[in-house]
Amino acid sequence: MGEGGRPCDQVRVRVPATSANLGPGFDAFGLALTLYDELVVTPGGSGVTVHVSGCGADDVPLDESHLVVRSIRAGLEALGVQVPGFTLRCENRIPHGRGLGSSSAAIVGGLAAAYGLAGEPVDRERLLRMANELEGHPDNVAAAVYGGFTVAWLDGDDGKAVRLDPSDGLGAVAYVPANRVLTKEARGLLPSAVPHGDAAANAGKAALLVVALTQRPDLLLTATEDRLHQEFREPAMPESLALVHKLRGSGLAAIISGAGPTVLVVGGRERTCPAPPDGWERHDLRVDPVGVQVWSMEAG
Ligand SMILES: Nc1ncnc2c1ncn2[C@@H]1O[C@H](COP(=O)(O)OP(=O)(O)OP(=O)(O)O)[C@@H](O)[C@H]1O
Ligand SMILES: [Mg+2]
């Protein structure tokens, strides 16, 4: 249904890629990036028809198990709205399994589409809670919901976040390798305990990174130093760690994006970042300021 209970012709959604962790902000920090998945949902019939173009088109299922479809269904149920069938078209630009938040974009995009189908304005706080439940952690979904730079945490089981404005014109260059690494696999490499000194260093650098991202881009290189997760992931992505070391050695604030294997240079600029290694893609991006967006078209 559309606004005021009128049938809704079509819902369009645009949702950004996100980079979590950003070095020391493990499981908490997120940055929304100007690389987008777009969805078009047209209600009708009793089942689902799914069309996918772009990233993941050859891999994702085209039935009720599709992550966007599951998220639309979960959103409709939470909002108490009946939409038995719909056609979903996905134009995907966020690569899958590379640490750029494709699963979060699918979940946040699907839930936002449910708001559009229900004819309700998006309640971002609630959307984040629902997205966290589906994704299992709040860092990427927070940035996809709010845009900008987000600090997320769990309050009991509830995903919460604050959004901060990154400093003007903050850029990011993403180096994306051809191979995938599943989040589960990359997480499995982390130790269950770390030395107190490493934990203390990370806490200080995370606090500094908030300052660096919002006011002092000159501090980004030192503020993105991490001792909790990146190096442990090397066996799953040795080329990514080698690239991080090389870029950092030349003064660029390079980090592993999310669970990898993408390498992100925060504050990176086209002029200063080198060409990607053979077989890698490079995306010159900026910070997305607004997060997921929804447009509903009313019938008649
Ligand atoms: N747009 C999408 N449509 C349907 N399924 C998707 C979509 N995006 C992601 N998925 C599902 O999520 C999986 C990738 O999730 P995973 O969390 O491993 O990687 P990621 O989200 O790209 O990276 P990260 O979580 O490290 O940022 C895909 O293999 C696919 O099953
Ligand atoms: Mg994911």
TrEMBL record:
Keywords: Amino-acid biosynthesis, ATP-binding, Cytoplasm, Kinase, Nucleotide-binding, Threonine biosynthesis, Transferase. InterPro entries: GHMP_kinase_C_sf (IPR036554), GHMP_kinase_N_dom (IPR006204), GHMP_knse_ATP-bd_CS (IPR006203), Homoserine_kinase (IPR000870), Ribosomal_Su5_D2-typ_SF (IPR020568), Ribsml_uS5_D2-typ_fold_subgr (IPR014721). The keyword Transferase applies. Residues 67-148 form the GHMP kinase N-terminal domain. GO terms for molecular function: ATP binding; homoserine kinase activity. It catalyses: L-homoserine + ATP = O-phospho-L-homoserine + ADP + H(+). Its EC number is 2.7.1.39. Its main location: cytoplasm. One of its GO terms (biological process) is threonine biosynthetic process. This is Homoserine kinase. The lineage of its organism: Bacteria, Bacillati, Actinomycetota, Actinomycetes, Propionibacteriales.
